[in-house]
Amino acid sequence: MENIARPRGTMDVMAPDIFMWNHIEKTVRAVAERYGFSEIKTPTFEEIGLFKRGVGETTDVVQKEMYSFTDKDGTMFALRPEGTASVVRAIIENGKASDTLPLKYFYLINCFRYEKPEAGRSREFVQFGTEMFGAPSAAADFTVISLADTVLRELGLKNVRLHINSIGCPECRPVYRAELVKYLNAHAGELCDTCLERMNTNPLRVLDCKNESCRKVAENAPRTVDHLCEECRTHLDDLTSSLDACGVGYVIDPHIVRGLDYYTKTVFEFISEGIGAQSTVCGGGRYDGLMEELGGPRMAGIGFGMGITRIILAMKQEGIDVPVLGVPQLYVATMGKKAVTEGLKIVSELRAMGVNAETDVVGRSLKAQMKYADKISARFVLMLGDTEIESGKAQLKEMATSEQAEIDIGEVAGFIKDRANQ
Question: Which residues sit opposite 128 in a β-bridge?
Answer without folding.
Answer: 108, 306
